Automatic annotation (TrEMBL):
UniProt lineage: Eukaryota, Viridiplantae, Streptophyta, Embryophyta, Tracheophyta
Alphabetical list of Pfam families matching this protein: PPR, PPR_2
MF annotations from Gene Ontology: RNA binding
Membrane-spanning intervals of the chain: none
UniProt keyword annotations, A-Z: Repeat
Cited PROSITE patterns: PPR
PPR repeats: 56-90, 158-192, 294-328
Domain of life: Eukaryota
Species: Thlaspi arvense (Field penny-cress)
GO biological process: RNA modification
Protein's name in the database: Pentatricopeptide repeat-containing protein
InterPro entries: PPR_At4g14850-like_plant (IPR046960), PPR_rpt (IPR002885), TPR-like_helical_dom_sf (IPR011990)
Length: 475
DNA sequence: ATAGGGTTAG
């Protein structure tokens, strides 16, 4: 950390606009651009305020960006709120700060405020950040709306712009629109990023064959661009989605010949592919060859072991990860809870749930609770599962998963009361869960209430769910 | 000058 010269600390009383003053400002801006340290940033911030430089938009923007990079979004926001004349860079920086701290909803409301303020118009940078927020929320309705504004702005014919737009549609599961954007880019140019976005859109929407087909066209069409680690990882995940080891092995051969086998991103997707296509031993081989591990490589391997019923080894791996000072995140803890739930380590699982915040700084969210509800239910502790589920505030989609888990537990352990309760909650969740109607109807039938059963089937018909019956009864 | 697009775990 660099140290401020004492001379500078006495400059607070310098009259404005003289030579020394300007020089001081240049010095502070210079120091601010260089530092990556929170303490020094705070110090420079104080000096900037004292000397009245905060009224300068450029200087304030630098401060905002510094705080965004340091993940101090609230401080960044405070600087922004106190600005005299925020420009498009100030707005965009704060929006992307909210993206970086997993607050896409706030990013979008900032964009709305910017629109209302009308003093500043969004540019390419702003739109790219806002589409990223839509992607994170998988909100295609809002995305479409902003897409319309982008078309009006005339900024659309730009490779970065269109790539972020097509990525947004892919993440919102609207592959057809994503493809239309991709096709429209032919006139002004695509690059590796835009091709990767489209391949990813297919891969993440269970259309692996089309992803691979597009990868082939890329190799056939482009003369300058070569596939990079991102594209290769995406192609491997497309193979994973096909669930066929054969395809996965082909892609493995391909990345080995390309010299990408030891790349961390590629290796992680390979290990996930092997785990999901049925070869845990190959997955482990890949894992052991990784030199520089990430939270994702560990999490993938923990998940793989968990899914194969290797609870203890998964937990051992978790301990190893923690001792190597790789910080687990919420997905890692989901893996650990899964490991417990698939190996009957029920009390251990409860222990992880109750201590994850304190020990690992990860606040349990509805997904973690769902996992534990499922675990308790599987191992006969249905009442505890129910008591826990009742206390969780949960959105409709996740709620359907949580009550669905409880429904299976009720069925598995012959608990008509739980089946009824879980089915009702499932139906309340308003998701398209026909199995809930079927289960509730069957439960009434079991309990002797044939009339209830019949009325439910009627309700189901009215709800247009009747076609799903055959599927639901197999599920 | 300061801000923006693609990837791997769920």
């Amino acid at each position: 950390m660099s140290v401020l010269p004492p001379r500078l600390l006495r400059l607070s009383f310098t009259p404005k606009n003289d030579f020394f003053h300007l020089k001081t400002k240049a010095f502070l801006v210079q120091k601010l651009s260089e530092t990556t340290d929170l303490f020094l940033t705070n110090l420079l911030h104080t000096l900037i305020l004292k000397l009245g430089f905060a009224t300068d938009t450029f200087t304030a923007n630098l401060l905002i960006n510094k705080y965004v990079k340091l993940r101090e979004i609230n401080t960044a926001r405070k600087v922004f709120d106190e600005m005299c004349e925020p420009n498009v860079v100030s707005w965009t920086s704060v929006i992307s700060g909210y993206n970086d701290t997993s607050q896409p909803q706030t990013a979008l409301s900032m964009f709305q405020e910017m629109h209302k303020a009308r003093s500043v118009s969004p540019n390419e940078f702003t739109f790219a950040s806002v589409f990223k927020a839509c992607s994170a929320l998988a909100e295609s309705r809002i995305g479409k709306n902003i897409h319309a504004r982008l078309e009006v702005s005339g900024l659309r014919s730009n490779t970065v712009m269109s790539s972020s737009l097509l990525d947004m549609y892919g993440k919102c599961n609207d592959v057809e629109t994503a493809r239309r954007v991709f096709d429209s880019m032919a006139s002004y140019g695509r690059n590796v990023v835009s091709w990767t976005s489209m391949i990813t859109a297919y891969a993440q929407n269970a259309r692996g064959h089309e992803a691979i087909e597009l990868f082939r066209s890329f190799n056939a069409a482009s003369t300058n661009d070569r596939p990079n680690q991102f594209m290769r990882a995406s192609v491997i995940s497309a193979c994973t989605s096909l669930g066929r080891l054969q395809w996965g092995k082909v892609s493995h051969g391909l990345v080995t010949r390309g010299g990408y086998e030891s790349n961390i991103v590629v290796a992680t997707s390979l290990l996930d592919m092997y785990a999901k296509c049925g070869s845990l031993s190959c997955a482990e081989k890949i894992f052991l060859r990784i030199r520089c591990h990430s939270v994702i490589s560990y999490t993938s391997m923990i998940m793989a072991k968990a899914k194969h019923g290797l609870g203890e080894p998964a937990i051992q791996l978790f301990d190893e990860m923690v001792s190597r000072r790789i910080k687990p995140n919420y997905v890692t803890l989901l893996g650990v809870l899964h490991a417990c739930g698939h190996s009957g380590l029920v009390n251990e699982g409860l222990g992880y749930l109750n201590s994850m915040k304190e020990k690992h700084g990860v606040v349990p969210d509805p997904r973690h609770y769902t996992c534990v509800v499922d675990m308790l239910g599987r191992f006969g502790r249905v009442d505890e599962a129910y008591e826990l589920a009742k206390t969780i505030e949960v959105g409709a989609e996740q709620g359907a998963l949580m009550w669905g888990a409880l429904l299976s537990a009720g069925r598995l352990h012959g608990r008509v009361d739980i089946v009824c309760e879980a089915s009702k909650r499932l139906i309340q969740s308003n998701q398209q869960v026909t199995s809930a109607y079927v289960a509730l109807s069957n439960a009434h039938a079991v309990a002797g209430g044939w009339e209830d059963s019949e009325s439910l089937r009627l309700e189901m018909k009215r709800g247009g769910n009747v076609k799903e019956r055959a599927y639901a009864q197999n599920a």
